[in-house]
Amino acid sequence: MLFQEMSAISNFNSCSTRPETAAVNFFFDGKFNSGLLNWRRRATTRISIPFQSSSLRLGTGWSNSKDGSIRMALVDERIAPGRNVAERSGILAYDLVQGALVKWSFAMDKSMPDPPTAMLLHGILGSRKNWGTFTRRLAQEFPMWQFLLVDLRCHGDSASIKKRGPHTVASTALDVLKLVAQLRITPRILIGHSFGGKVVLSMVEQAAKPLARPVRAWVLDATPGKVRTGGDGEDHPEELISFLRKLPKEVSSKQEVVNALLQEGFSKDVAQWVVTNLQPNDLPGSSSGFSWVFDLEGISEMYQSYEETNLWKFVESLPRGVHVNFLKAERSLHRWALEDLQRIHAAEDLAAEEGGGVEMHVLEDAGHWVHADNPDGLFRILSSSFQALRT
């Protein structure tokens, strides 16, 4: 559990003139053309990347940032060296990882359909980097797919964008809807961990209607309603956020923060994970040391919304074409009450009658950090969606 705004596209005539409606409509409307291999070849830029590059390719509009990661510019833009994509876009920071057989970029002819796309969202106090290794593995196994990794508002590189409050699950979901609308991407699979899981549900809820194509949502170790934390001696996200807010915005070293967290009673794993959100102060005139990449005030609001948001009603009345998969981590016992399991199983029957789908999965030998604790098991379970939607 430990885990920005766009105008409506002017030539997108099928949408309402309201930006929110445009984003939501674009997300699910439009027909999917499965003839990926028949697309016209367009000029592309290939970038050498240090990890398993033989299975991945990057379309036009990519550039390397100074931190070594690869980011993609928004429509008809290229990122200046060292510039943050979030600063350029004003929406959200993201990476787009493409399988080796993807022959598409959003800079191509707008009549070209986007390839099958999956989106992965992190949890509270996380970032898109949490999904990097796992996503590259998916891209190798499913080379005709592309994968959108997003830094949610107040997190990672998106924290530099000052988003209007309230900072809620719903507003976070709308951010992502606006991003995919501007990128002209229509995700077929939505994967969210913890807080990101509720964001995925909220995205589909905001676009709820009979869908033109199936959409599969994965909610990893989170329920639609009550958030149950604690019980394992170390997972107390509200306490962690509260403690981090007391620390200076700039610190001399990461070890200084690790020591403070250990002294406060947080685990070594949590402490070492949290300091991955510290970045060196390398701007002219800044002091040496490190500063946080996230907005803790906004994150505090987001976590409160996470606890208060209840999406059971939506799950129990899914629109046709939506398939929601819940994944429970075997060792994440305190998050799951018998009531949750019973309601999910009841929703399975209801969804089947209405043309939607709900499924429950259990990931063995894993705690809340499913993609770190048992990546092989998680890969096997998630692969079912890609195989079911294989072009």
TL;DR of this structure?
With 391 residues, this protein is an alpha/beta fold. Helices cover 34% and strands 15% of the residues.
Task: Describe the protein.
The chain is 34% helix and 15% strand. The chain has helices at residues 19-28, 85-89, 132-141, 169-183, 195-206, 237-246, 254-264, 268-274, 296-308, 312-315, 338-354, 370-373, 375-388; strands at residues 56-57, 62-64, 70-72, 93-99, 117-121, 146-151, 189-193, 215-220, 250-251, 278-280, 290-292, 322-329, 357-363. Strand 7 (189-193), helix 5 (195-206) and strand 8 form a beta-alpha-beta unit. The protein is globular. Mean pLDDT is 77; it is low at 1-89.
Could you name the key traits of this structure?
single chain, 391 residues, alpha/beta, 8-stranded mixed β-sheet, 3-stranded antiparallel β-sheet, disordered N terminus
Question: What is the topological layout?
Answer:
Blueprint: H1 19-28, E1 56-57, E2 62-64, E3 70-72, H2 85-89, E4 93-99, E5 117-121, H3 132-141, E6 146-151, H4 169-183, E7 189-193, H5 195-206, E8 215-220, H6 237-246, E9 250-251, H7 254-264, H8 268-274, E10 278-280, E11 290-292, H9 296-308, H10 312-315, E12 322-329, H11 338-354, E13 357-363, H12 370-373, H13 375-388
Parallel strand pairs: 5-6, 5-7, 7-8, 8-12, 12-13
Antiparallel strand pairs: 1-4, 2-3, 4-6, 9-11, 10-11
